[in-house]
Design a protein that fits this description.
Radius of gyration: 14 Å
Shape: globular
Number of domains: 1
Number of strands: 4
Distance between the termini: 40 Å
Strand order of the largest sheet: 2-1-3-4
Largest sheet: 4 strands, mixed
Length: 119
């Protein structure tokens, strides 16, 4: 297995499409429940996430995070998502810095960056 894709807020069709693409590349795609949004990306990538006692706030838009996925595989997956017209608003790569962030923190950082770019 080479890497993992964390999926947030995707519908069944998006999940199925992404799982099919990733399976062909021997990459695990995991849908993350909203109860885990208080976990760090690192915890989730390692399968060590834990549910929060109170229900977490859902990510409002779709988001995927690539964890230890090669550039070649990431490009292939993104290309197939585009060709399949599978909309996913936010796409990120887990880095040493953001690996310590919760799902919520990453989402709001991506939202802030998008707002800054769009003006």
């Amino acid at each position: 297995m080479s890497g993992k894709i964390l999926m947030f807020g995707l519908d069944e069709n998006q999940i199925r499409f992404l799982k099919n693409i990733s399976a062909a590349l021997k990459i695990k795609a995991v849908s993350i429940d909203t109860a885990m949004y208080g976990c760090t990306l690192s915890e989730l990538a390692q399968g060590k996430g834990r549910e929060e006692s109170s229900s977490g706030t859902a990510v409002y838009e779709t988001m995927i995070v690539f964890c230890q996925v090669s550039d070649k595989h990431m490009d292939r997956i993104l290309s197939q998502l585009k060709a399949g017209k599978i909309p996913i608003k936010y796409k990120a790569v887990m880095t040493p810095t953001n690996s310590r962030w919760t799902v919520r923190k990453l989402y709001f950082e991506l939202e802030r960056e998008r707002m800054a770019i769009e003006g």
